[in-house]
Amino acid sequence: MIKIDGKEVVIEKFPDGTPRIKIDPFIGYEGAVEVTWFYESNDELMYLIFIKKHLERHIPNEFISLFLPYIPNARMDRTKNDDEVFTLKYFCDFINWLNFSTVSVLDAHSDVSVALLNNCYNETPKEFMEYVIKKIGEEVILYFPDSGAAKRYSELFPDIQYCYGEKNRDWKTGKILGLTVRTNGIDLAGKNVLMADDIIAFGGSLHFGAAELKKRGAGRIYAYATHTENSVLDKEKGTLIKDLENNTVERLFTTNSLFTGKHEKITVMEV
Question: Could you tell me if 244 and 185 lie in one domain?
Answer without folding.
Answer: yes
